[in-house]
Fold:
Amino acid sequence: MPQLSVLDLSPIVEGSDAAQALRHTLDLARHAERWGYQRYWLAEHHNMAGVACSATAVLVGHVAGGTERIRVGSGGIMLPNHAPLVVAEQFGTLGTLYPGRIDLGLGRAPGTDPLTMRALRRHLRQEEDAFVDDVVELQRYFAAPAGQAVHAIPGAGVDVPIWILGSSLYGAQVAAMLGLPYAFASHFAPAMLLQALEVYRERFRPSAQLAKPYVMVGVNVVLADSDEQARHLFTSLQLRFHGIRTGARGPLPRPVARIDDVLSPAAIAGVDEMLSVALVGSPTTAREQLAHLMAATQADELMATAHIHDHGARLRSYELLSGLV
Structure:
């Protein structure tokens, strides 16, 4: 069975605020540590009313400082928004403060809209290979080869494993070429999951960091004590993704009694296609779904994300998942 980890966007739920979302993030991380989860990752997003994880490195430090053993990292830092030296310094500092516990997952997308992207980093490089160049530059800051003029301090010589995140073949090719672990964002973009994993495994080149391919698969997880309860909780995520598709972003909605009464059949079909990589139901139902997912992907690790309005129900979902492996 795979390792289990948590992906958290620090969701701001309807009727609450960012402060509460950040308190819930630390609480969930502490529970995940007790339940045996491998790592806890925070995702970078900007100018989005429904998530509180924009200052990702700050939040990684907050979670690492509030836990003891679980690995904490980014899932991911959106590299086009940042100078590689700044990222190396931030995560070098984190790796120095919490040795052996920090991960650096890197994404190619900006994680926001074009206007906000320009506000984040005004002088953006447009070359197609800028992402690869930036990843290699980051690796140099951590390795600190002889003769390098610019150093990340802290950062040089600090052990911070780099991961490549992606939702297409591009990320798979980069991860394979550089010999890095690969995390696929199938929790919201599942279409190319199996093809990307095949490309990554076939083209993988061993590196100083990794001797053989290592695959993490993102999965939505809404578990409850009954199938009916889980499907009810799942409507919050369906409504959120409908909002994303229609440009009506906002806090995570409360669940509804019947999704059919709120969304059209076409809207439900579109949303469910995006959310097809999911475990939704009681532990018995989720165990069957998990077996099918593992048979298809042979993933080494699952990165579970649970967009559930009620914090207690969200904790319960992760607790039930931990009992399946």
User: Anything to note?
Assistant: The chain has eleven helices and nine strands. The CA atoms of residues 150 and 216 lie 33 Å apart. The chain has a mean pLDDT of 94. The radius of gyration is 19 Å.
